[in-house]
Amino acid sequence: MYKIWTKNPGICPPVYHKIMLIMRLTIVLLFASLIQVSANGFAQNVTLNASGASLKVILNKLSSQTGYDFVYTEQLLKTAEPITIHVKNASLGDVLEQIFKLQPLTYALDTKTVIIKAKEKSFLENLVSKFQEIDVSGKVLDETGRPIPGATIKVKGKSKAVISGLNGEFLLTGLSTTDIIQVSFLGYELRELKASTGLNNIILKLATSKLDEVQIQAYGTTSKRISTSNISTVKMEELEKQPVANPLLALMGRVPGLQISQSNGNPNSGITVRVQGQNSISNGNDPFYVIDGVPFPPQLLATGLNGGNLGNSGRTPGNPLSFINPSDIESIDILKDADATAIYGSRAANGAILITTKRGKSGDMKIDLSLQTGFSAFTNTFDKLNTSQYLEMRREALKNTNAAATAVNAYDILNLYGYDNNRDADWQKEVLSEK
C-alpha cells in the first residue's frame, strides 16, 4: 500500500484506506448476493407425486417445474430403478437427494444444469466385484452341429464384445453373473443367455425371413428372395385378424396396387376389385379368381339372390367369395403383371387372385377354434305414425279425392280389412330387436 501511495502522492493514506475498504465490502456483498441467487435457484419449491415412474419421466417433470436442464445418456438411465416419490413444496436439492439415494447414479450441479453420472464404486466394492468376475466361454453351432465362425458375442447393455473363431469358440473375460450374453449371426435368430462360466454349445436357429415365405405362382411356388414377378401374398395369420365375412375385405390396405371397395353398406354387398387401376372402359375390369387351381366367377349372375341377400345395387352384383369362410383360407396371392396373362391368358388381363385353402397335414390331431363376438346398437330412431294416425291420414286422403272405402279398395289403400286396426307395431324395435 505504501508503494501505491507513493506513486499517487495526491491521495493521502487515510483516504486510500477508506477507498480500499469500500471496494472490499463491495466485492464481499456482490459475492454473497451471487451465492444467495444460486442458493435460491437450487432451493426452488418442487411438488412431485409418482409411483414406479422411470427416472427420465421424473427428470422431465423437474425440468418443467424448475427450469433446470438435466444432462444424461440413455445408457445411464437404463441402469436406474423405478422411482416412487411424494413431496410437496420441497427444495430441488432435497428432491434430488431423495431420488438418487438408492440409485446407482449421482449428480453434479453446474449453474442451471444438473449432470447425471454413474456413482463411483468404493475400494471395497471394486474389490468385491473383482472377486465376483467370471470368464465366459462357449462354442457357437448351427442346427446341424457345424461351427459358425464370425458370430458376434456381446454383453447386453455394454460395449464388450468378441467374434467367434474358426471353430465357433469364444471367450469373454471379466463379466458379472448378472450380465446377459447376446449371440448373433447373419441369417440366424438372435439368442440371449445368462452369463455363466460354461455355456458349452450355443445352437443358433435359421431366421425365417419375409423373403423366404412361400408364394403361389400360378402352377408353381417361389419366394420373394428369388422371384422376379410382382406378386403380393397375404397369409392366414393376417386374414384371421380381420372380422369380415368376405376374405377380399381383409385385403384392403394390405396389398400395394390393389383397390377394394364395397358397392353399398348392406351386409355381403357387392365388392369392386381393381388390380393396378382400371384397364378397360367397357370390357370389364375384374381380376381372374382361382381357388385351389379351379377358376372361380368374379361376380354372381344378376338374379334375385344377389339382388337381395348380396345387396346388388344394380351396377355391382354380389361377390361370390362371400360364400367362402375366411378361416378356411391358407393364403391369398395377387399376380399383378405378365405372370398372370402368361399362364391364364386374356382372362387374367386385369390381374389374378389365387386363393389357397387349408388342407390336412401330417402329425398329431389338432383342433383350431376361432371365436368372434361383437355388438351393435341403433343410435337414432325415426318418429312414426301409429295405427290410428295412419288410418286417419288415409281416410282424409280418400275424403279429399271424393272416394269411399270399400271392401275392394280398402285392402290396397286403407288396410282396413284383414288386419287388426287397433294394433300398434313399432317395426324399428321389432326388426332391430330393441325391447
Structure characterization notes:
With 435 residues, the protein is α+β, with helices and mostly antiparallel strands. It has five domains: 2-41; 43-118, Phage tail protein beta-alpha-beta fold (3-Layer(bab) Sandwich); 125-203, Carboxypeptidase-like, regulatory domain (Immunoglobulin-like); 212-357, TonB-dependent receptor, plug domain (Ferric Hydroxamate Uptake Protein, Chain A, domain 1, Beta Complex), CATH 2.170.130.10; 387-432, no CATH class. It is built from twelve helices and 21 strands. The strands form seven sheets. It has a five-stranded mixed beta sheet. A four-stranded antiparallel beta sheet has the order 8-7-10-11, with no helix packed on it. The chain has a three-stranded mixed beta sheet with strand order 2-5-4, with helices on one face. A hairpin with a 2-residue loop joins strand 18 and strand 19 (294-296). The radius of gyration is 41 Å and the shape is flat.
Short characterization:
The strands form 7 sheets. A 5-stranded mixed β-sheet has the order 15-20-21-18-19.
Alpha plus pi helix count: 12
CATH topology of the largest domain: Ferric Hydroxamate Uptake Protein, Chain A, domain 1
Tally the structural domains: 5
Name of the CATH superfamily of the largest domain:
TonB-dependent receptor, plug domain
What order do the strands of the largest sheet run in, or round the barrel if closed? 15-20-21-18-19
CATH class of the largest domain: Mainly Beta
DSSP, total strands: 21
What proportion of the residues form beta strands (DSSP E)? 25-35%
Computed Rg: 41 Å
Secondary structure: helix percent? 25-40%
**Which CATH architecture of the largest domain would you pick?**
Beta Complex
Structural class: alpha+beta
Instruction: List the uncertain runs.
Output: 1-8, 36-42, 304-316
Given the C-alpha coordinates, what overall shape results? Answer: flat
Distance between the termini: 106 Å
Biggest sheet character: 5 strands, mixed
- Mean pLDDT across the residues is 76
